[in-house]
Design brief:
By secondary structure, the protein is α/β, with parallel strands linked by helices. It folds into 2 domains: 233 residues, Type I PLP-dependent aspartate aminotransferase-like (Major domain) (Aspartate Aminotransferase, domain 2, 3-Layer(aba) Sandwich); 92 residues, Aspartate Aminotransferase, domain 1, CATH 3.90.1150.10. The protein has 14 helices and 13 strands. A 7-stranded mixed beta sheet has the order 2-8-7-6-5-3-4, sandwiched between helices. Strands 9-10-13-12 form a 4-stranded antiparallel beta sheet. Helix 1 packs across helix 11 and helix 3 packs across helix 10. The structure holds pyridoxal-5'-phosphate.
Length: 345
């Protein structure tokens, strides 16, 4: 089956010809020794963008989450996050394996909880209980549907965290999507966090990597964990250059992906048999279902026509990104209309 429009995930973006050329010409050195000029440049760019002392280049976003938790916790601690958060569902229980920490989950619509929820989840200082030590938020929320944590809510969470002596961690896999959609500078979001990272390999279009930023002390400790987990690399500048290119060329265009997601959401909302609240589509993730338990059938029919969406926790998810053109969206809109008509009328 030829896939014409791949809305499975923004992780599927492929490096453009211009990005590949830039990568081929990258200056490289031994990254593990701190001597790769391209990696060092990428880390400076990210640290500056996020208003932190320093940053470290990592092979994945998962490693950025897990290194942050390893630095912020002791075995027996508890990390508080939303019940839909990525480390709970897709990181192979790494938090318990690597850090010996447990997770306390919070509810809340769209992957977003309140400061009151947080305060009531923090454990009393009691030897019967795990020690709450970190709160983690996902900007934007993935299983929550690409929702944006408002700056005001983040500030309230930060105040509660400070009161309860918790570290603040941001899984910023799609933080630049939040910034593009809300107009809030990434610096403003990042100021409230002890650790914050960006994924370069999603909508930004680089093939590999994330950058994790924080204070000088945090990054020094993060480097120990990077080495310990086998994340230190050698001539990594060749891939880091993809990240530099992405930050220089692919940030402002994220708005186009959000516009495409809204076009899909509106089409889906207009079809009898398909269920979505288009108001909740804020960035590049579109979550929807088909009535009468027909979500799988709907996804199968789209796939027959060359459109791939993912199936997550009983929902269908379409993610717009760099490799999805306006023409692809027009084709998807027409196909959704026809498929919904065929199935539901
Ligand atoms: C919210 C979130 N956090 C973390 C990750 C992990 O990133 P990576 O695939 O780069 O390890 C993902 C990947 O999809 C994600 O969506």
């Amino acid at each position: 089956m030829e896939i014409k429009v791949d809305l499975f995930s923004d992780t599927g973006t492929k490096p453009s010809q211009d990005m590949r050329r830039f990568m081929a010409e990258a200056e490289v050195g031994d990254e593990q020794l701190g001597e790769d000029p391209s990696v060092n440049r990428l880390c400076r760019m990210a640290a500056e963008m996020l208003g932190k002392d320093d940053a470290v280049y990592l092979p994945s976003g998962l490693m950025a989450n897990q290194i942050s938790f390893a630095v912020h916790t002791q075995p027996g601690d508890e990390v508080i996050m939303h019940e839909t958060a990525h480390p709970i569902h897709y990181e192979g229980a790494a938090l318990s394996v690597i850090s010996g920490a447990s997770i306390r989950t919070l509810g809340g619509e769209g992957g977003i909880f309140t400061a009151e929820d947080l305060k009531s989840a923090v454990r009393d200082d009691d030897y019967h209980s795990p020690q709450s030590s970190v709160v983690s938020i996902e900007q934007t929320t993935n299983l929550g549907g690409g929702r944006i944590w408002p700056l005001k809510r983040i500030k309230e969470i930060a105040e509660a965290a400070q009161e309860k002596n918790l570290k603040m961690h941001m899984d910023g896999a799609r933080m630049l999507n939040a910034a593009a959609a809300s107009g809030v500078n990434p610096l403003e979001y990042a100021q409230y966090f002890d650790s914050v990272w960006l994924d370069l390999s999603k909508g930004l279009g680089a093939p590999v990597g994330s950058v994790l930023a924080g204070s000088a002390d945090f990054i020094e400790k993060a480097r120990f964990w990077k080495q310990r987990l086998g994340g230190a690399m050698r001539q990594a500048g060749i891939i880091a250059a993809g990240g530099i290119f992405a930050l220089e060329h692919n940030v402002s265009r994220l708005a186009e992906d959000h516009e495409h997601a809204k076009m899909l959401a509106k089409t889906i909302a207009d079809q009898p048999g398909l269920e979505i609240d288009p108001e909740k589509v804020e960035t590049n993730i579109v979550l929807f279902t088909a009535a009468d338990g027909k979500s799988d059938l709907f996804a199968d029919e789209l796939l027959k026509k060359g459109i791939r969406v993912s199936r997550l926790e009983g929902m269908l998810r379409a993610v717009t990104h760099l490799d999805i053109s306006r023409e692809d969206i027009r084709y998807t809109v027409k196909t959704i209309e026809k498929t919904a008509k065929d199935i539901f009328s």
